[in-house]
Design a protein that fits this description.
Elements (H helix, E strand, L loop, with lengths): L14 H4 L5 H8 L3 E5 L4 E3 L8 E13 L9 H8 L3 H5 E2 L4 E2 L14 E14 L1 H10 L1 H21 L5 E3 L5 H12 L5 E3 L5 H10 L8 E3 L5 E3 L3 H7 L12 E6 L3 H12 L4 E4 L6 H4 L16 H14 L3 E3 L4 E5 L11 E5 L4 E9 L3 E3 L7 H4 L4 E2 L4 H6 L4 E5 L3 H11 L4 E5 L11 H8 L4 E4 L2 E7 L8 E6 L5 E4 L3 E4 L3 E3 L40 E3 L11 H27 L3 H6 L6
Parallel strand pairs: 7-8, 11-12, 11-16, 12-13, 16-27, 18-25, 19-20, 19-25, 20-21
Antiparallel strand pairs: 1-6, 2-6, 3-4, 3-5, 3-6, 7-9, 9-10, 14-15, 15-16, 17-26, 22-23, 23-24
Bound molecules: flavin-adenine dinucleotide (FAD).
């Protein structure tokens, strides 16, 4: 081994996995899922900034590959090659047997490419469209795993390099850039921020796009579209995260919410043959996606970041053909108007005015962060006050003092995570101890962090500083003595619990408990029906995860309920089918789909 070489990163050892070359036998198996295409010299198979038509497997000839991002910056091939432990030649050409694709090819949604791939001489390649790729991944377990792993690793490498995807032009510390970076980071989309105060190239871009005040940040999408200070929804739409074509005929199941409960329902439901649409107001992952490290999820002894766990679940669901529409809030559920006729359905009314029909609905909307009663809180949300601590926020508070409000497990995790970035973390806790609100292992972890201090019986009474440019200080009070203190702090994290996100069910007659959680199973028997265990008081509407009354507020529990509800969905759909066909109940029981 060359001792003078930079030690390869973790990615280097994965070069072969990232760029597998398929054997002749494997190519033959891929052939069943696509069709052969021929290209003339110089013809493009994929163009940067345009949606790719699916996955290519090169059969003969060679391809020249170059990469460029939304503002034309070339892929840092040398850095990429060094990171992979590969040569520049390895990186620049695709050879027969190699797979040319990106993870976006799985969804069939218009995700955009960062690569230009052109034929050198005549080229033959198999083109596998998105539906063929999904079928291949399921039918060819071993080969499918090699291909899927390659696609996931390629996306991880782009995120590591900060290359590809949209380019944000605006101040790194601005709340707008933080807001949009949060969406992109949580959705696993590579992106780059160019700060006009720090980057010489920015002035050229600003002159080119000439924004007026209030229009920053600019977001340049890989297809060249420029958005001026977009909302999260506008950005999501431009990136193809919002489904543009929703079926007009009914889905078997519409799942509302793509946290762990919704994603588990989607994976188990689609793998057992149900047609499924997931509607998610923000992005996949829910509260779990905001967790810096989940240490109590079965099978991950060293813990796993919530984003990684949820992003794998999202990919897995897409593999089984689940349709997703992210940044798509459900505003209202109508459980009466289309319940007569041969195929009764519930109607979901979306915030963008569209409607979706489904035979069964799974409510997996979890909980929303509680906003503590601090008079000027709203002025500082996103301007120094956050409800989660992701790597985006951690970067902003590097080597600074931060304050964290709350004494539960999520507060504990965030304190431990922030301790490795911030100079000092103060936890303000309302009660006199942590033992009744936090897991023992986290209390020990916090005690072992020299730069984390816990201040008991204390609450924040005021945020200080003009909202623009952002938080400058915090005043807090000891609840027992009434003594108040002011401290210069620019970053506060609020972890003060969550309320059920069930207001969109109002008007549907679904029984809730006194705190607004959705009642299910035995809890709603008084309605005169014999509901299935996770069914609500309205037939065909189920609830799983944190939004459900009596649920255990844990990732594992949410995933368990998501998996469990699928058998009940099959039972419900089979009963409904036999009722509408006039079949006898005994036949209905036999027609329940087998659960693997
Ligand atoms: C910071 C943090 C750390 C945590 N760490 C751990 C841990 O280490 N271990 C553990 O076991 N648990 C942990 N938890 C708890 C765990 O994350 C939750 O119990 C779990 O995420 C609940 O899953 P869920 O799918 O029921 O709901 P959620 O995760 O809340 O997901 C609900 C989803 O529904 C969406 N939604 C809401 N309303 C609508 C609507 N009207 N239309 C469309 N979509 C909508 C939301 O945007 C959200 O994405 C943590 C929680 C937090 C906040």
């Amino acid at each position: 081994m060359d001792s003078g070489r930079t030690p390869p990163s973790a990615l280097a050892s994965r070069f072969q996995q990232m760029f597998p070359v398929l054997s002749t036998a494997e190519i033959e198996r891929v052939r069943h899922f696509g069709k052969m295409r021929r290209f003339l010299p110089g013809e493009a198979l994929i163009q940067a900034g345009k949606p790719a038509p699916g996955m290519y497997v090169l059969i003969s000839g060679r391809l020249a590959v170059t990469g460029r991002d939304a503002v034309g910056q070339a892929l840092p091939v040398a850095a990429f090659a060094q990171m992979m432990g590969a040569t520049l030649e390895d990186m620049a050409e695709v050879v027969p047997g190699e797979v040319l694709a990106e993870i976006g090819a799985l969804s069939g949604q218009p995700s955009v490419s960062v690569l230009d791939a052109k034929a050198i001489g005549e080229v033959e390649a198999i083109l596998v469209p998105p539906e063929g790729l999904r079928a291949l991944l399921i039918a060819e377990a071993e080969l499918g795993e090699r291909i899927l792993r390659a696609l996931i690793l390629r996306r991880v490498a782009l995120i590591d390099l900060g290359f590809g995807g949209p380019v944000l032009i605006g101040s790194v510390n601005s709340p707008e850039v933080t807001r949009l970076s949060g969406l992109l980071g949580r959705t696993g989309i590579p992106f780059r921020v160019i700060d006009p105060d720090q980057d010489a190239d920015a002035s050229v871009l600003l002159a080119r796009f000439a924004p007026s005040s209030g229009e920053l940040p600019l977001v340049v999408i890989p297809d060249g579209t420029v958005l001026k200070n977009p909302t999260k929804q506008e950005l999501a739409r431009a990136l193809g995260l919002v489904a543009t074509t929703l079926r007009s005929d009914p889905y078997d199941v519409a799942i509302v919410g793509a946290g762990p409960a919704g994603l588990a329902t989607a994976v188990y439901g689609a793998s057992e043959g149900l047609s499924i649409l997931v509607l998610e107001a923000l992005t996949f992952g829910g509260q779990a996606g905001a967790s810096a490290r989940i240490e109590n999820y079965l099978g991950f002894p060293t813990g796993i970041s919530g984003q990684a766990l949820m992003s794998n679940a999202f990919t897995q669901a897409q593999k089984f053909g689940v349709e997703f529409s992210l940044s798509t809030e459900v505003k209202r559920l109508d459980c009466t108007s289309e319940m007569s006729g041969p195929d009764p359905v519930h109607v979901l009314h979306l915030a963008d005015g569209r409607q979706v029909r489904a035979r069964a609905v799974v409510v997996a909307t979890g909980a929303r962060y509680r906003r503590p009663e601090i008079p000027n809180l709203s002025q500082f949300e996103g301007r120094g006050v956050s409800y989660w601590a992701s790597p985006v926020e951690a970067k902003l508070c590097r080597e600074q003092d931060v304050v964290l409000l709350g004494g539960g497990n999520s507060a504990g995790q965030a304190a431990v995570f922030l301790a490795s970035h911030a100079r000092h973390v103060r936890m303000l806790v309302r009660g006199p101890s942590l033992s009744s609100t936090m897991s023992h292992y986290l209390i020990e972890r916090i005690a072992a962090c020299p730069n984390v201090g816990v201040i008991f019986e204390t609450e924040i009474v005021e945020f200080l500083g003009p909202p623009d440019p952002g938080l400058r200080g915090v005043r807090w009070r000891n609840r027992r003595t009434g003594k108040e203190e002011e401290h210069a702090i620019s970053h506060v994290f609020l972890f003060t619990g969550a309320d059920p996100a069930a207001s969109w069910l109002a008007g549907c007659g679904i029984p809730l408990d006194e705190k607004g959680f959705v009642r299910t199973g035995a809890d709603v028997r008084s309605t005169g029906r014999e509901p299935l265990p996770l069914e609500t008081g309205v037939e065909g509407i189920f609830a799983v995860g944190d939004v459900r009354c009596g649920s255990v507020k844990r990732v594992g529990a949410a995933i368990g309920e998501g998996a469990g509800v699928v058998a009940q969905l099959h039972t419900f759909l089979a009963r409904r089918r036999s009722a509408t066909a006039g079949a006898r109940p005994a036949e209905a029981a036999r027609s329940v789909a087998p659960i693997a």
